[in-house]
Amino acid sequence: MRPIDKGVAKAFVLKILMDGPVHGYEIMRRIKEVTGFAPSPGHIYTLLRKLEKEGLVDVSVSHIGGRKLKIYRLSDKGRKFLEDNKALLTAASMYVNRFRKAKEVELHKLFKAIRNIFEFLDKMPSDKMKDVRDAIESFTRRINEIIGE
Q: Matching Pfam families, A to Z (predicted)?
């Protein structure tokens, strides 16, 4: 199950808002700073709209440097939600810790390699497909040895 399915992203964004009101790009920056992975704007803004509809965040519009920005702040209902869902905050902290460790082992390089393979699959000759399959098999075997699977 993905973290978003467990409400972890929701709890993490609300936790960020506990520090004070911010705009969406600042939320994305803080998530990347903490986890090493940048969420997509589509994911964050969809989540923020959902939080607003649920009454967990309040939204105001500010004009900063000639730009119109939506500022998100934790509502009283959002504070109560966090108080009532300590287990969700614990799960969010666990996921953040895993993301930090993923950053340490440079897991993003693996994701990039997988994306590259996927993008070139339809152009890849059969001999290269076999090489990729062999590399994946070898990699998987080695990782399972390391983690004790």
A: PadR (PF03551)
